[in-house]
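Hey,

Quick one before I head out. I ran the complex with fe (ii) ion overnight. Inputs first:
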Amino acid sequence: MNELSRPPVPPIGLTAKYPELGTGPCDTAIYHDPAVYEKEIAAIFKRSWYMIGRVDQLARPGDFFTYYLPTFRLEVLIVRDRDGQINAFHNVCTHRGNLAENRKEGHCQGLFVCRFHGWAYDLKGKLARVRDEEGFFDLDKSQLGLKPVPMGIWEGFIFVSPVDEPAQTLAEYLGDQGRDNAGYPWGACTQSYQIEAEIDANWKLITDSPSEVYHIPMLHPTSAAPTMMASGNPMGRLLDVEIRGPHRTNSHYSVMAEPKPVQKLAYFHAAAAQNVAVDDKGYELPVGINATRSPHWTVDLICFFPSLQFTLSAGMYTAHQVWPLGPNKSLYQQRVFVRPATNAAERFGQENSMVEYRDIVMEDFSTLERIQRALDTGQIRQFHFHDHELALRHQHKVVTDALAAYDREVAA
Ligand code: FES
Ligand SMILES: [Fe+2]
């Protein structure tokens, strides 16, 4: 076994980089208290931006998709107009509130027609047609267009704000995390699939779950552990955690030393499909990805606080979005983005990665529901975080600080 396949075990010492986070146990009330949950929606979620899709989903004028943001019970309609502009609207007909467009995605010839009474809106959201208009009283159509939603684009991802007047711009929200991760070939992974699951767990338990790999040898012994941990990293340690304001990135170590035979075959072919840009085009990873430039790096977990995370390797990525539905209920959405495979072997490698990733998160979720039960019944009042559970400690502090700042604002 050569030096690359069996690197040294990553050391303890991540938390020491961030002394402001402390080392003591953390109070678990923020994981279940209904009053905390309500405050989090106001103090954190309504002040953040949400990634709802990519510009490549709207290749031609008239292409559109709709997206439901369950935490806010809002649905948006995104469309490319004839000038090439991308517009975002509340998907709400201004007559009496039905959906302006029923379909999830498609192509609009020019008018979105509400299926309740037939009011119709053009690609810029203007109310273009009212059925039997003469029966209305002093209708000012110019004031009855679809209501715009604040929208912004980063690296081809479309983000929206759930409130009309965002507390911060998209660029402010993304901060250094946006800057340091720009330049990855996000747009090359044009194929995607999505799964979702409703989980009886607080949103933070779900974002915590991939944010530490301490559990991998125990919870994922036959799925993730054979490749990520193996005997070269038996305790499940990270290469690095890099904090950027409320956001953070975990860099993962891999030995790839003991894959199962099917994993070995799949990874060989998937890697061929995934790493084209790196190998053939002299592409370099942005500074935020594999920030330590370790030769033993495989995957980063890039977190945009509060609820968007990407797991990202050199040429394939997965977006994880968690939507809080209550203090102990959330919707998890996983969308895997891959390059179009150039042959059947590459496709097999990609499919294996997708199925494997789905299975790994399913192994997590049943555990999270049991943890939530212990939290709800007051059986566990403190979490004791390991040095390599630093991302969880960071999230705890970001949430606690945001709630305290909100209390001060309200008091003032
Ligand atoms: S609610 Fe849309 S036309 Fe009546
Ligand atoms: Fe896990």
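The CA atoms of residues 89 and 277 lie 35 Å apart.

Talk tomorrow,
K.
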